[in-house]
Amino acid sequence: MSLTNIEEFMPEKLAKAIANPLFPTLDNALRSGRHVSSEDLDSHAYLIEFEKELAMFYRRYNAELVRAPEGFLYLRPRSTSLIGRSVLSEIDMLVGKVLCFLYLSPERLAHEGIFTNQELFDELLVLADEQKLMKLVTNRALGSDLDREKLFDKVKTSLRRLRRLGMLIPIGENGKFRISESVFRFGADVRTGDDVREAQLRLIRDGEAVVHQQTSSQSSLLDDIDTNNQEMLEMQQDVEQAVQESSI
How many CA atoms lie within 13 A of 115 on its CB side? Predict the structure, then answer.
């Protein structure tokens, strides 16, 4: 088949993008919900170079290649997409919001951008009502040491999931990590120029959820956040109150 015939079906630059050795791994990562930030030097540069062509490519699957104002890129399947998707759990969402809170906080500079699993867990307990958090473990949880240990295990599971999505950059093997700019998926309404503390508050109160790959039978929280979830609403109100009290 001649080059002319090929170009009737696929533009030359798109063919070049697909032929790139980075494409198979990166395509699989994007379909799995990974966010590609500037820390992923080669992958990020590749997506920027071929952004227009790849956006057209994924449009055939009813999915949108999005570049956020912060510079990271991700794939957003639509409701009719051929690419499967699912939603994050409530605790995944809450952990993501706290990560975004920490990303904008003065503590990030003080820690040189590095946090630990324990520090994230402690911050979560400060911002959210502990008893409501315990209900994410079991309705029978009373706040015992064992319940807290189970909650911590769930938080670590959420951190591992968010790491696979490109939200965290692991540092060694001691539960340390650096927060990626991709956590702004949990606060897409906040941009530069906003008051930092007010921005942090909105990130936790109104943070945007993130999707990851599992099945195509569930709806994405990016399209429809469940506003009828009273437990989540009450927890977010407690977070708002905690942040307001800390500013007094």
Answer: 25
Q: Are residues 104 and 62 in the same domain?
A: no
Q: How confident is the model at residue 230 (pLDDT cuts 50, 70, 90)?
A: very low
Domain count, the chain: 2
For residue 11, what is the DSSP state?
Answer: -
Do 21 and 126 belong to one domain? no
- Largest alpha-carbon pair distance within the chain? 72
Look up the domain containing 72 and give its range.
8-77
- How many Å apart are CA 248 and CA 244, to the nearest integer? 7
What pLDDT score was predicted for residue 228?
A: 34
Reported as a single tens digit per residue, the pLDDT across 46-55 is 999 999 999 9
Higher-confidence position of 5 and 10: 10
Residues 241 and 121 in one domain: yes
In order, the DSSP letters of 52-116 are HHHHHHHHTTTEEEEE-TTS-EEEEE-TT-SS--EE--HHHHHHHHHHHHHHTSHHHHHTTTEEE
Query: What amino acid occupies position 210?
Result: V
Q: Which residues have a Cβ under 8 Å from the Cβ of 141 and sit 6 or more positions away?
A: 134, 135, 147, 150, 151
Same domain as 153, residue 229: yes
CB neighbours (10 Å) of residue 229?
12
CATH number, domain with residue 103: 1.10.10.2260
215 in a structural domain:
no
Nearest residue to 130 via CA among 176, 166, 94: 94
- Least confident stretch, 63-67, 78-82, 94-98: 78-82
